[in-house]
Write a structure and sequence with these properties.
This is Response regulator of zinc sigma-54-dependent two-component system. Keywords: ATP-binding, DNA-binding, Nucleotide-binding, Phosphoprotein, Transcription, Transcription regulation, Two-component regulatory system. The chain folds into 4 domains: 104 residues, Rossmann fold (3-Layer(aba) Sandwich); 171 residues, 3-Layer(aba) Sandwich (Rossmann fold), CATH 3.40.50.300; 79 residues, Helicase, Ruva Protein, domain 3 (Orthogonal Bundle); 44 residues, Arc Repressor Mutant, subunit A (Orthogonal Bundle), CATH 1.10.10. It is 48% helix and 12% strand. The chain contains 20 helices and 14 strands. The strands form 4 sheets. The protein has a 5-stranded parallel β-sheet with strand order 2-1-3-4-5, sandwiched between helices. The protein has a 5-stranded parallel β-sheet with strand order 7-8-11-6-12. The two termini are 22 Å apart. 39% of the residues are buried.
């Protein structure tokens, strides 16, 4: 897999080079330019995955660059960086489509977590840019019987301020549904602010949600608004809500009950006018039963439950989504006019899609890159599915069959036991479990897939 490309835009050469170097050390391919004009030239000449831009620059400033990027390459997330942060400026930036608003001097971990989140968001919604206008429901979500029922519930909930809880397997399009709900609501002119709860450890998640005052902790040299504050007048989307710790659950409950919050290091409560939408693939009822998720918070979130059906139950949508992804991704990859042949669509419909819409989108992008000729045929689909799924004759992600008495068998069982124990001690929080095991969160996710524990 190629490295993600990050473009750093800052007229202060020292700051730009330090930030670019930090990103390279973290494994990204980074490039620094000193002006908005140079940034647009770079975007026109190479594929860029994320832009990090200073706000105050001579000539084209960061806000102007943001507008140009959203117009020219709307799927590329833009993170704005400034030493002159203020709530109005941050709100303006989020409304204009910024993926994040960071303050100088920047914190290394916060920058890297923010870039990771931006990349994750980009991969999920590449087929529909965050600020694109909401279109007819068949184009946005699907046209199968299962999706019609889901869309009807979204339309019923949209005009209200009721909290919506989106349920369903990973990859079913819960964030697209949340954005659609926002677009259909009276708050559509306000910001849509997403927080991906599983991407951050507790200390960063809390500051991400609620912001902090100057001096709240070492390195807090200025006040920073949180995502709750930035969502004022709009919608706050809390993705993977089932992964938050008990400590954050308490503070989130107060936010939902009282419509107020307190910044880290603050002494006064701040009122907020926000519509809440949450999403999870977890069985929250079971988590309530075993004490890992607060019952009162569950009922506050579960006011309007909306289930996102898995793609295997949406056979009629496979062709619709595949053709849409193909048209858009072919344009982006210089293969305009590429289409699916009838047998290619039939091959897609025969697959069970354990990764749901996200898996379909990723496969279509691979097919766009590797398909021969002007049509994607069944042989192309079967080749790419086989290349990904076959590993010594077994499905991808499942553990290799091994004799129960071998050393490998004992190692696998020991790893499974250690991971289960860490997850239990961390009350299901995978970030905390990874920390207890002394491995990265990415390594833990890989191990869960490899050992069949997902």
């Amino acid at each position: 897999m190629s490295k993600a490309r990050v473009l750093v835009v800052d007229d202060d050469r020292a700051v730009g080079l330090v930030l670019a170097s930090l990103l390279k050390q973290a494994g990204y391919e980074s490039h620094h330019v000193a002006s908005g004009e140079d940034a647009l030239a770079a975007l026109a000449s190479r594929a860029i995955d994320v832009v990090i831009s200073d706000v105050r620059m001579p000539g084209m400033d960061g806000m102007e660059l943001l507008g140009e990027v959203k117009q020219r390459t709307p799927d590329v997330p833009v993170l704005l960086l400034t030493a002159h942060g203020s709530v109005p400026l941050a709100v303006e930036a989020m409304k204009a489509g910024a993926a994040e608003f960071l303050l100088k001097p920047f914190d290394r971990d916060e920058v890297l977590f923010t870039v990771e989140k931006a990349l994750a968001t980009n991969a999920r919604v590449a087929a529909r840019p965050p600020d694109a206008p909401v279109r007819g429901e068949g184009q946005v979500l699907g046209d199968s019987d299962a999706m019609r029922e889901t869309i009807a519930r979204l339309k019923k909930a949209a005009p209200t301020v009721a909290t919506v809880l989106l349920r369903g397997e990973s990859g079913t399009g819960k964030e697209v549904a949340a954005r659609t709900l926002h677009g259909w609501s009276p708050r559509h002119a306000g910001p849509f602010v997403a927080v991906h709860c599983a991407a951050l450890p507790d200390n960063l998640l809390e500051s991400e949600l609620f912001g902090y005052e100057k001096g709240a902790f070492t390195g807090a040299t200025q006040r920073k608004p949180g995502r709750v504050e930035l969502a004022q007048g709009g919608t706050l989307f809390l993705d993977e809500i089932g992964d938050i710790s008990p400590a954050v659950q308490v503070k989130l409950l107060r936010l939902l009950q009282e419509k107020e919050f307190q910044r880290l290091g603050g002494t006064s409560a701040e009122k907020v006018d926000v519509r809440f939408v949450a999403a999870t693939h977890r069985d929250l009822e079971a988590m309530v039963e075993d004490g890992t998720f607060r019952e009162d918070l569950f009922y506050r979130l579960n006011v309007v439950p909306v289930w996102m059906p898995p793609l295997r139950e949406r056979g009629d949508d496979v062709a619709l989504l595949a053709n849409r992804f193909c048209a858009e991704l072919a344009d982006q990859n210089g293969r305009a006019g590429l289409r699916f042949a009838a047998d290619g669509i039939a091959a897609l419909r025969a697959h069970d899609w354990p990764g749901n819409v996200r898996e379909l989108q990723n496969l279509v992008e691979r097919l766009v890159v590797f398909a021969e000729g002007d049509a994607i045929r069944a042989s192309d689909v079967e080749r790419e599915l086989g290349a990904r799924s076959a590993r010594n004759g077994r499905p991808s992600g499942s553990p290799a069959p091994i004799d129960a008495g071998t050393l490998d068998a004992h190692r696998v069982e020991a790893e499974k036991g250690a991971i289960r124990d860490a997850l239990a001690r961390a009350q299901g929080n995978r970030t905390q479990a990874a920390r207890l095991l002394g491995i990265s969160r990415r390594t833990l996710y890989n191990k869960l897939a490899e050992l069949g524990l997902e």
